[in-house]
Amino acid sequence: MSKHFTLSKVKVLDGLKLALVYADGEALTVDLAPLVKRHKTLAPLRDAAVFKKPRITDGGETLTWAGNDELQLAADNLRARAIEQAGGVSHEFIWHWMDKHQLTLDQAAKHLGLSRRMLAYYRSGEKPVPLTVGLACLGWETLQQQAGAAHEGHFAMAG
């Protein structure tokens, strides 16, 4: 796994928050409370005695609690969640947007006005996704919805 998805340090903070440091030097904070609340398998993390002892496992690719594979979270997912919680756009956002609209890399790059290579960097997480790219995804999506509404006889701005 690449440095930007390899955990090098983890520190437990108040609540269900973690301070994460990745091998590329990026330091992020992630709040796991919404995730723990939503997924029953993570309920044991509500116990402070369990939560306060995360271990970096699989060469930095995962965090594991209590030596239990059910209590394991992937480093790339934690990074994506932390970026999005901080108001940024993660590589996972790009993946989900492309999948939602059934777009190939070439199609998505064309719609966003990006080179295929640059979008591939963003999608892989190799380069941080600029906020403008996330906004372009949302803007494209809005134009598609408006185009659909125009075909149904509703008002839509020309795009």
From TrEMBL:
<dbReference type="InterPro" id="IPR018841">
    <property type="entry name" value="DUF2442"/>
</dbReference>
<dbReference type="Pfam" id="PF10387">
    <property type="entry name" value="DUF2442"/>
</dbReference>
<dbReference type="InterPro" id="IPR036782">
    <property type="entry name" value="NE0471-like_N"/>
</dbReference>
<protein>
    <submittedName>
        <fullName>DUF2442 domain-containing protein</fullName>
    </submittedName>
</protein>
<dbReference type="InterPro" id="IPR010982">
    <property type="entry name" value="Lambda_DNA-bd_dom_sf"/>
</dbReference>
